[in-house]
Amino acid sequence: xNADNLxxxxxxxxLKKAGLCGFTFHSLRHTCATLLLSKNVxxxxxxxxxxxxxxWTTIQKDKTTSxxxxxxxxxxxxxxxxxx
Length: 84
Prior knowledge:
The protein is mainly α. It has helices spanning 3-18, 27-38, 43-50, 55-61, 67-83.
């Protein structure tokens, strides 16, 4: 499968149909991280899914995360650091 074809033939038309112009395929990663963090999924799991080097990278790269979710993830990061 050619990534360029997927983007232009499938992804872009779907965005247009949904009224979400300006979205990038890569932004789906950030959306995924935001949704998972908002559902209190352990940031370590999200880090592994996204392939980030550290949990902190996962939290910092997701600029759209709300302050509440970010604080919760930071507390979990500190708890994980103390345990392991």
